[in-house]
Write a structure and sequence with these properties.
Pfam families: Acyltransferase, GPAT_C. This protein is an alpha/beta fold. The protein contains 29 helices and 17 strands. Helix 14 crosses helix 22 and helix 22 packs across helix 27. It is globular and about 70 Å long.
């Protein structure tokens, strides 16, 4: 059949882990229910009863890693500069004297390194405490996870790995650890923050170390950074915090992990320099994100505001807004030793001195990639889904004219949200559902996106009140797109619960097959195509398929036998919802695939590609031939390009300005042909 697809990791892989292994390492897809208030403590409740100054000046008595030597930041820098590894790299540098290269390395380290001081931690505690009490109603922390972290920090070097949705993420973990007498982490941050007057230095002295955004092939910078990170991990002088996704997610859904820092923090274990390393995934969930409107505009091509102290003070108006609650879920500490047991052979590092650089084997690289994906997946599983995320899922399935003009009936929306709440629980999602009036309050909280009036809910579209000129049709599309993309970002917070059963529901609908083998083949095809959109642990295609089957059977959507998956009448509503949930991704990929197939240019730059796709999508939206605004998002467009590179349909050539070339027209055309056939069928039979 045309959709027969051979997947490289269908049934067996070096990094497959069975149910028992998962339960021992980390609970993935575990039974979850409504949040138990006893498990989460509101840390702002006590803060509101004490003075900010009293909180900042409280006794701080952390229990550090037992094996950590007593050392200062100057000792850390000295250890890095005098390391055999860095001396070797400096000796290899040609074209300059050794002393000149050493001075350059010292300059890089001064620019990069933290200067953690308790006095500045107290200053940050005073300031952040004030800000958080203004921004949030409550900040809930799971105490069980925090207690496990406190114990883990004393036993081995600890790596804190939160998800990254907001600038607030940078402050919240240190704030919590200071509150509970846990050692303050050193935090990897982007170099633009260091350039902020006064604020940059305060951040540095509060534990931030700064990394350049574009390192490229600068071998000396890579060497200084990697040795700096490895020395922190090796000595255990402080917990190290970094974002495995690499940058702040502008869509509020998980981003495919970046492996550079991950490789650096794991290398001391691979080389036998430490007995074990503990990874702590942290899931940060927001009722409302502070930067919601800015993120949507960035996705539409509006330049990101430069980080500056002036900009920070101008943004102080956000203190007048209500951002609801935040939940910080500290996951179960994961032992790198246990994770890697039986998966890698560390003896390869015995062949050369551990102080010398060594390119990791494919086995090691695959292991690092597997661990990174496992961390992000665990972050997803630990996040709490708000009622607003469920409402956003449903609002986006309504026609755009209904959203922008007459609005959705409130009664129907609330009934459907309660139905979806039950489905999330059937799918073992974690919900934050505080009270019976939660839907009215959550719509009121998100007044910048929708408004509830006369029994209907409509999308808010704010124009420029100072402008007297009418909007052009293209400007009108962009204004609507900004509001839609804000709604999309909150829908994305719930996607991880629905993705696997959603892909299976799509496979059932498209193939019209009941045979498990055919459905599995097509499930793997879609899983590979969307590997840049959603998080899939490498080598777990079979487990993901089995999980999807199990969840659809549990909610009564399908009946399972050994060879077949049969759709039940009672499951049509569930399958329809899941298919519509993934439809915007299918529509977006279809449009971009067709653009690349039909466009005459075989070589183009990303700067040419993004506006060209956006212009085409705008025209199709105005003509009524396209109904999804998500294709206007630069994130979606870049994900498609990344997918095509991974599928070897497009090759990235670093000539002048990152030129992209279609390397294999036959291969590319094959995917386009499959795509057009499948997407046409989807379009023709959309009303399920």
């Amino acid at each position: 059949m045309l959709w027969s697809y051979c997947h490289s990791g269908t049934r067996k892989s070096l990094f497959n882990i069975n149910t028992r292994e998962l339960s021992e390492v980390v609970v993935i897809g575990s039974t979850a229910s409504l949040k138990d208030e006893e498990e989460f403590t509101d840390i702002l409740e006590e803060r509101r009863c004490t003075t900010d100054l009293g909180y900042a000046l409280r006794t701080f008595n952390p229990q550090p890693y037992k094996g950590a030597p007593s050392s200062s930041t100057s000792d850390l820098k000295k250890a890095v500069l005098e390391s055999q590894y860095l001396r070797y790299i400096i000796a290899l540098e040609t074209g300059s004297s050794v002393e000149k290269v050493r001075q350059e390395a010292r300059g890089i380290l001064e620019e990069m390194s933290h200067n953690l001081q308790l006095g500045f931690i107290r200053l940050m505690a005073y300031t952040v405490n004030k800000v958080f009490k203004r921004l949030f109603r409550s900040i809930y922390v799971n105490m069980e996870g925090l207690n496990m972290l406190q114990q883990a920090i004393q036993e081995s070097p600890v790596i804190l790995m939160p998800n990254h949705r907001s600038y607030v993420d940078f402050l919240i973990v240190s704030f919590i650890l200071f509150t509970y007498d846990i050692p303050i982490p050193v935090i990897a941050a982007g170099i633009p923050l260091a350039s902020m007057k006064v604020v940059g230095e305060i951040l540095r002295r509060s534990g931030a170390f700064f990394i350049r955004r574009a390192i490229g092939s600068d071998k000396l910078y890579w060497a200084v950074l990697s040795e700096y990170v490895r020395t922190i991990v090796r000595t255990g002088c402080a917990p190290l915090e970094f974002y495995v996704e690499g940058f702040r997610s502008r869509t509020l859904k998980s981003v495919v992990p970046k492996l550079g820092m991950m490789d650096m923090v794991l290398e001391p274990y691979f080389k036998g320099e430490v007995f074990d390393i503990t990874l702590v995934p942290i899931s940060i969930s927001y009722d409302r994100v502070v930067e919601e409107s800015l993120l949507a505009l960035e996705l539409l091509g509006v330049p990101k505001p430069k980080e500056s102290t002036t900009g920070l003070f101008k943004a102080s108006r956000v203190l007048q807004e209500d951002y609801g609650c935040m939940h910080v879920n500290f996951g179960r500490p994961l032992s790198v030793r246990q994770l890697c047991e039986g998966k890698i052979n560390r003896s390869e590092y015995n062949l050369i001195p551990r102080d010398l650089p060594q390119r990791p084997s494919t086995e090691i690289q695959d292991c690092v990639n597997w661990v990174a994906h496992l961390i992000v997946r665990t972050q997803e599983e630990g996040s709490l889904i708000s009622p607003w995320s469920l409402m956003a899922c449903l609002l986006l399935q309504a026609p755009i004219t209904t959203l922008t003009e007459e609005g959705l009936q409130w009664h129907g929306l609330t009934e459907k949200t309660l139905w979806l709440r039950k489905l999330v629980l059937d799918f073992r999602g974690r919900l934050n559902w505080p009270d019976s009036d939660v839907m009215s309050s959550t719509v009121a909280l998100h007044h910048s996106i929708v408004h509830h009036k006369a029994g209907r809910v409509c999308l808010v579209q704010d124009g420029d009140p100072a402008s007297q000129d009418p909007l052009s049709p293209e400007e009108g599309v962009m204004r609507t797109a900004a509001a839609v993309l804000m709604l999309v970002s909150y829908r994305n917070q719930a996607l991880h619960v629905f993705v696997r059963p959603g892909i299976l529901a799509t496979a059932i609908h498209i193939t019209k097959s009941t045979q498990k083998d055919e459905l599995f083949s097509f499930f793997c095809f879609l899983r590979d195509v969307f590997a840049n959109e959603f998080i899939f642990i490498p080598g777990r295609a079979s487990q993901d398929f089995d999980e999807a089957c199990s969840l659809l059977q549990k909610c009564g959507a399908v009946h399972m036998s050994e060879q077949e998956v049969t759709v039940l009448e009672t499951g049509l509503e569930v399958l329809s919802f899941l298919q519509k949930l993934l439809q915007p991704f299918l529509d977006s990929y279809q449009l971009i695939f067709r653009y690349l197939c039909e466009n005459g240019a075989h070589v183009f730059t990303e700067k040419q590609f993004l506006p060209a796709v956006q212009n085409l999508a705008t025209k199709l939206i105005l003509s009524g031939d396209l109904h999804t605004f998500e294709v206007l998002s630069s994130d979606t467009q870049k994900n498609v390009l990344s997918a095509l590179r991974r599928l070897e349909a497009v090759t990235k050539l670093r000539v002048n300005n990152n030129i992209l070339s279609i390397a294999d027209p036959y291969f590319f055309g094959k995917y386009i042909a499959i795509d057009v056939l499948l997407m046409t069928e989807i379009m023709n039979k959309r009303a399920l």
